[in-house]
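hey so u asked for the seq, here:
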Amino acid sequence: MMDWYFHQREAQSRGYLRVCGIDEAGRGPLAGPVCAVAVILPDGLEIEGLNDSKKLTEKKREALFDVITARAEAYGIGWASEQEIDQVNILQATFLAMTRAVEALSLPADFALVDGNRMPPLSIPGEIIVKGDGKAACIAAASVLAKVSRDRALRELDQRHPEYGFAQHKGYGTKAHYAAIKQYGLLPEHRRSFLKNLNEK
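ran it, C-alpha cells below
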C-alpha cells in the first residue's frame, strides 16, 4: 500500500514543520486563467477517495473539495489571468499562480512539495515530485482544489457566454470550442498566445 505521507514526513524529519503540497489546473486550455493551490494537511489525515483529480469524476471532486477545505490546516488559491499567460508564457504564469497560492495560505508553510518537473521561484524551499498528485496526499488535495476552483470559474464564464460551451469543455481545445471561436470570435478570456495559428484550424 502506498504511503501518502512519505514525502511530507521526509521533509518534517529535516526540521520543516508546515509542509504544503502545490498543484495547478488549466495549463492546457485555450481560455480562462490558470489556477494553483497550496494545501497543508495534518500528518496522516485520511481522506476517503482522495486521488489525483484527473482520476476522479466531477461529482467526486466537488464532494472532496468540501472535505479538504474543512479538514486542511490551511489552503491558499492563486490565479494567473489570460493576459498574464499571454505576457509571460504559460510556465511562468503557472509559477506566478503557485507563488500567489503559497502567499494566500492562512498559516505560513515552510516547505513545499510541488507537482511537476520544474521548481517555481517560491519564497520557501521545496522539492518537485513528478506525478506528485498520485504520490503525496497534500499534492493530491491541491490538485482537487485547483481543478474544482477552475471548473467553477469556467462555469461562471459559461453563464456570461453560453454560446461557447465553457461548462462542457472548460476552455480546452475541443472541436466544439474551435467551432464557437470561428462563429463568434475571440473573448477577452481567450489566450491569444495559444491561438496564434487559429486560421490553420
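The longest strand covers residues 19-25. Helices lie at 6-13, 58-71, 82-88, 90-103, 137-160, 166-169, 175-184.
lmk if thats what u needed
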